[in-house]
């Protein structure tokens, strides 16, 4: 496939540009008979939406999703589900200057060399705006996983630039603009963001993404390993530069006597594996971490070249998140859910019913 | 696909088990007219082969590859290239005990729950031995990339357990059993491995993988990004738990004024991106790092459960690498080469000839 | 893929139901830099459109296509091209009775058993209306094929029910409502259709589909043969029950001395192969024939069963073509064009540039 | 995929050339836990094997299959099943002359233009010998279909050149070298073949292929329709030029009142649909017919051109079937079985368990 379709059996074909008439996706392979309405999708879209706090892009549009097909009298029919989101707030004038020069850290240079033509309006196809349809599709996947297996997907921010964010509990995540798992640091993070904005600079972020209530047996043995597909999905999110499963890079300095999770009659004794052994889910919680680079669009002037290879200075105006990592949280959840539903359907195809209850798995934590 | 085929246009379908009659693969989509013989493949197979030093599995078999198809009078014909490697040294008796218990850190538990049956002989399908056909296929990909674009793929070890390995130069890598980029630390690494072996323990490793002489424009914009496919390929290698592109997790604490690589008339001023922007290659060197967990098979007894969920102790005998990361070096090279050739063919399909020379790219280093 | 995406490298993902809010498709993999506007697509849509003559469905809607993405300043960018067609004339009341019984010859029975739910409005997903997005995508493919290779795709009707239609010339096809290749029979065909309509009955049709200016070398050797993919595409069109390539079923009674097309310095001496040898195009004209069953929706009452398996009588009201084969002509052209562009891109990937001029091919006719 | 892999979830990757060291395939996606041995496969291979009667190629080799992987202690494990058939009787000297000229009706011309290189030994990749691995894979599919659903696949010859073959009963098919469904015509067919051989000529054939005990609900609604995939599979068999489903080309002259199969409480009243409605199986018998062209390799000299485009005469020596259609019978069965198992797995993925018993379906015959 040319790269706009995600998944094998629960496929999501994404279309649109940041400032074109509309963005959206077509979900194919959704099991029939599941209750579904726009309301089931809009919630996650709103979590990702720009303009929700002063720390994210001030571009303000509702991102209202319309279901064009695949649902009859409130239930999925097994036919493709097309989701449409009209672009309403575009301000193309902000982006005219992009066409002549290549913005550092952006896809301008590579798109130009690959295609010989590019849509400069808001970054065109390379804009993080194209994650909105994935969040919408992910909401459909989450609903099915929850109803079928009780699987829940969640993500939060554990580091904002130089600021580590202490994990106090998932209950805090919905209640602050940073998707932070505590309340005590919010003021400090606000101040940190204000300082960055004043400096015309930006910062990166680290997120953890998890799935609980995991079935055992999802994933293929050699390629399309569950962890490999998760790495593919996460690294494919705009600005992500690193992915870890379980102990991740910490595994390098661990001994085999430490890393290998022992088993007991009531479950695993630890979860360094992150819930995947041999590419297949163990039934423990899936544990993923991702690194997100700092926003490339900053007000500080940067050196670049123009279409003729001559030196040029790039100054970015317009509306940009000082940390794209903030809004990456619902995106990462969606992408993980899309990987899981695809593998659940693949498992059903070859091995029959998915094991939703494996009492030997207690999903202990280290 | 059920997970034994890698790639879209240059596909490698892998088959076999560690102790079955044979392992191998079928390469489909190789461009016609390239000179190819077993000799072009055997070299990389020998680099991955067990028994090459006292630090890797002492299992000793030649891993001699036979080309069964796709080559006529020394040239590829465009037909599928089947590669066969017979298993000659199997010692199944070493592995009989595996069938009743689940080895910590291994795929025994997940295969059992997924399939309800598993081949215990040497880990069956989950054995790292199945990487041998990928190394063979990777050698074909490397040859084509070199001849078409002058692209070279290489990897080395930068950390062995707690021991960081200083980078002195690529020229050292072929001359030591650790694929280390220096000579001065080899004695220390030997001692470290001997200590581990005595302790009946194992350690992880960190590798860097690179491609030089990169064309610009490889990769798809949304999914099948070049970096996403690299993450998929690397995380799919046995025991890999983390993948970084360019600055990787260091991006989290970088500012946008630092991370975004500026452009100058003679090329990029830095390479924090790792050679990928917006999922598409910039023409700079590709820079990847991976984390590999410690070998799960160790002589130290470990707690587990048997098929009935009752407590059991697992002691591993037989021949195992104290650090599977050592032999992962040629494997990582092969997987990167397979990603690159696939994207080169995909680029030709949609955009025509690949740009092998982009003078504005000097591939500067930070 | 779950079956709503056509093609490997030039993919068309189709969505919608006959009476939902909209139908459409997403084209992915279109080469960049081609001039494209709605006007390039609307023409073929109008040829397929219902209500264009009294011999086709009187449902009257403009089928106006909107390009939602993938085009910037009138040129394709390489990004997916989403095409949207709003449903404007739906009259759902005509179709209420369908939900309780299974209409003979329709997909009601199979959808019900496969999905346990179905959208009865106008046949929902099984309606021939879903061919409209394929006609739109085919128009994009036709334009690229014409501009790249000078390849032209065309189709006409050679039999309407019991009425054979003499081939006089392609120039007549656009000038009559039957896509017939002559003018002399039009009155007779009109009368035939009127008689069918009075009888509350319907008839089948036979079409030929051709491509001229064919490049040589399109198609894969074993599977994905060009003729196999054409058979797949044609048999996938609603109501098609048979496909022939070249001599087709006539080959059964041909001798080898007759069937095998001899070669001469100025080209092939005949074209019994239909332009394909070993699954690969010869450069001769592609010659395909298809059989289309009679319209299943007829006014004559028919026996069936209801959801409880009890006898029921089905009477169809509402608007239906007495011969669905008429409107299949532009659909068949579109599907052939989609097969050809996909194989052209596949050829570029593995073998490089497509041979657009092979002087040794004169495409002689028997 | 580059065209050597068949199927989506039960994939068969085929490799080899007629006169290379070996041919074979890799089956991926076979459900685990099915008893399987070489003996389950060899039977169908022997039915296809050359040298079994004086009417088929006298090339004599055992076509002994070896299972290289995917089976442990006599049961499938879910891992890929590699099947290897060594080429033992090659006589390359028979084929030397092919390299300079293009044999009419063969793939020589197209392979040469597509790849710029070709393996002339026995037709290389284009030889019907490459159907042997498909017959082997089909035997695995047949076994699973039989055990899961009681589905049986069968084929027979209904016309040999100008000789129609009366259908008396399936029980006759295994008992004559023509796979003919009667005994009374065998002498006449023998005589017909002898006459052809004397004349240095060849003839085509027509086969019917069926599946009984069909589940309801197999097939996808828009593309990957069951009948479309069957057409793809059948047209992909060497020398096939036409495919019909159910009434096929007869549908053209049928009225809607005749063609549309009515339903009754005890099942369908007829089977003009061939067991497929809207691309999905009805549970009736699947009914397919295919046309096979005459063997292209005949002793009668034919006109052609050489590599320089100069006139040349081609005389074929060596061993060839006067009617390739004879041996196509087990091949067609295998390809149908491969389509069915793939769709059964696809159905399980999206819709859950396959309906193996639908009492309302009596599969009446016209």
Q: Which fold name is given in CATH as the topology of chain A?
A: Chorismate synthase, AroC fold
What is the tally of helical segments of chain A?
A: 7
Give the ordered list of helices and strands of chain A.
Answer: EEEHEEEEHHEEHEHEHEEEEEEEH
- Please name the two chains that share the biggest interface, counting residues whose Cβ lies under 8 Å from a Cβ on the partner chain: A-B, 112 and 111 residues
Radius of gyration of chain A, in Å, reads: 21 Å
**What percent of residues of chain A adopt helix (DSSP H or I)?**
10-25%
- Give the structural class of chain A: alpha+beta
Based on CA inertia axes, which overall geometry of chain A fits?
Answer: globular
What oligomeric arrangement do these chains adopt?
homotetramer
End-to-end CA span of chain A: 41 Å
For the largest beta-sheet of chain A, the strand count, sense and barrel status come to: 5 strands, antiparallel
Number of strand segments of chain A: 18
Low-confidence runs of at least 5 consecutive residues of chain A: 359-366
In the CATH hierarchy, what is the class of chain A? Alpha Beta
Strand order of the largest sheet of chain A: 1-2-3-7-4
Supply the CATH architecture of chain A.
4-Layer Sandwich
How many structurally independent domains of chain A?
1
Mean pLDDT across residues of chain A: 92
Task: Quote the beta fraction of chain A.
Answer: 15-25%
**CATH homologous group name of chain A:** Chorismate synthase AroC
């Amino acid at each position: 496939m040319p790269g706009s379709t995600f998944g094998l059996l629960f496929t999501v074909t994404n279309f649109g540009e940041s400032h074109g008439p509309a963005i959206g996706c077509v979900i194919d392979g959704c099991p029939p008979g599941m209750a579904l309405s726009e309301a089931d999708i809009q919630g996650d879209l709103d979590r990702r939406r720009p303009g929700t706090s002063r720390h994210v892009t001030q571009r303000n549009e509702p991102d209202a999703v319309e279901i064009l097909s695949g649902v009859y009298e409130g239930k999925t029919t097994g036919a493709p589900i097309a989701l449409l989101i009209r672009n309403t707030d575009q301000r193309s004038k902000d982006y005219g200057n992009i066409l002549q020069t290549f913005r550092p850290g952006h896809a301008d240079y590579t798109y130009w060399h690959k295609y010989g033509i590019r849509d400069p309006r808001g970054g065109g196809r390379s804009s993080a705006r194209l994650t909105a349809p994935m969040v919408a599709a992910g909401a459909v996947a989450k609903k099915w996983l929850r109803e079928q297996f009780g699987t829940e997907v969640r993500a939060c921010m554990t580091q904002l630039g130089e600021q580590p964010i202490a994990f106090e509990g998932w209950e805090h995540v919905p209640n602050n603009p940073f998707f932070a798992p505590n309340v005590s640091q919010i003021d400090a993070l606000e101040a940190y963001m204000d300082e960055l904005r004043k400096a015309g600079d930006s910062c990166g972020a680290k997120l953890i993404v998890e799935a609980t209530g995991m079935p055992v047996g999802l994933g293929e043995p050699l390629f399309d390993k569950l962890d490999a597909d998760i790495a593919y999905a996460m690294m494919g999110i705009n600005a992500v530069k690193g992915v870890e499963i379980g102990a991740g890079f910490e595994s390098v300095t661990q001994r085999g006597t430490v890393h290998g999770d022992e088993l007991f009659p009531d479950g695993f004794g630890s979860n360094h594996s992150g819930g995947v052994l041999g590419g297949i889910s163990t039934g423990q919680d899936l544990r993923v971490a991702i690194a997100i680079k700092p926003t490339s669009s900053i007000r500080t002037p940067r050196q670049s070249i123009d279409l003729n290879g001559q030196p040029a200075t790039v100054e970015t105006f317009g509306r940009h998140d000082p940390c794209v990592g903030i809004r990456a949280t619902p995106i990462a959840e969606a992408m993980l859910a899309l990987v899981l539903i695809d593998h659940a359907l693949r498992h059903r195809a070859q091995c029959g019913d998915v094991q939703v209850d494996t009492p030997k798995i207690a999903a202990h934590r280290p």
